[in-house]
Design brief:
It comes from Falsiruegeria litorea R37. This protein is mainly beta. The protein has helices at about 5-10, 15-20, 155-160, 170, and strands at about 30-35, 45-50, 55-60, 70, 80-85, 90-95, 95-105, 105-115, 120-130, 135-145, 165, 175-180, 185-195, 205, 215, 220-225, 225-235, 250-255, 260, 265. Helices cover about 10% and strands about 50% of the residues. Strands 3, 4, 6, 7, 9 and 10 form a 6-stranded antiparallel sheet that branches. It is globular, with a radius of gyration of 19 Å.
Length: about 270
């Protein structure tokens, strides 16, 4: 969701320069990749954004000044459940502003469960996103593609799937706790995870799990095998809210690998 700070930093000022960009098509192109049927009978595909040199796009939790990708599947046929696998992103620091995303290209694997196994699957809709270089441009591109059930293994999709974060079990997570306390504008959260280092400078992203809530940029620190991240959770409506710890998603982004942790216990 586009936050007020993103409007101030990512759109309002850069949009003055955006008029100088000759066209979105020269910055980014979208195509749908086919990966055929899985053993479970689902369709494996991917949405690929190919970016011009020097441009980047954003992860699902893009930072205060980013624009997360959003999808409108209206127009699609025989589409049941849609599941994304997000490859580990990169943390960018530009003029003191940290954002999270991808450069050169974003390949986002998507697994589609058809409503009827004996019918073809048509992906038709539009993707809204943001791209940034010296200026930031909000964009929207349409797609219309019938998935190929006979397609073989796609190495580009396979590489994107292999670039996913480790699960908590794979990374050796021993515990994940969240301490909550009220603030003037919302709720302070301190997430503590006992996990070996993921390499280099680390950042732990906190996602509330509730689309009406958002988290400020976290402050992350590590001591031994314990990494701690602190942020403030704020409601879009400004009203009081409750937190379901089982829905909180923690992602540790490191220099060698990332870790995806679903849920935390009281700390």
């Amino acid at each position: 969701m586009l936050r007020s700070v993103a409007l101030a930093i990512g759109l309002t000022v850069p949009s003055l320069a955006a008029a100088q960009v000759s066209g979105l098509g020269e910055i980014v192109q979208l195509d749908i990749l086919d990966g055929g049927l899985t053993k479970q009978g689902t369709y494996q595909g991917a949405i690929r954004l190919t970016l011009a040199d020097g441009w980047k796009t954003y992860w699902r939790a893009p930072g205060d000044a980013g624009i997360p990708p959003q999808f409108d599947w209206r127009g699609s046929r025989n589409v049941g459940e849609v599941s994304f696998t997000w490859p580990s992103p990169t943390v960018f620091d530009q003029n003191g502003i940290r954002t999270i995303g991808y450069e050169k290209q974003m390949v986002l694997p998507v697994e589609i469960t058809p409503k009827r196994a004996d019918k073809p699957v048509q992906l038709k809709g539009k993707m809204s996103f943001g791209v940034c270089s010296d200026v930031c441009v909000p964009g929207q591109l349409k797609f219309n593609h019938e998935l190929d059930s006979d397609a073989g293994r796609n190495p580009t999709i396979a590489a994107a799937l292999a670039a996913r974060p480790y699960s908590a079990r794979e990374a050796g997570v021993k515990s994940a706790t969240c301490r909550l306390s009220p603030t003037k504008d919302g709720m302070r959260i301190e997430a503590t995870v006992r996990v070996p280092s993921t390499g280099g400078t680390e950042m732990m992203i906190i996602e509330p799990g509730d689309p009406s809530l958002w988290a400020t940029e976290p402050e992350t620190k590590r001591q031994g095998n314990v990494i701690t991240s602190t942020a403030e959770l704020i409601s879009d409506s400004g009203n009081a809210f409750a937190i379901d710890r089982s829905e909180i998603r923690l992602t540790v982004l490191g220099g060698s690998h990332s870790v995806d942790i679903q849920g935390c216990t009281p700390g």
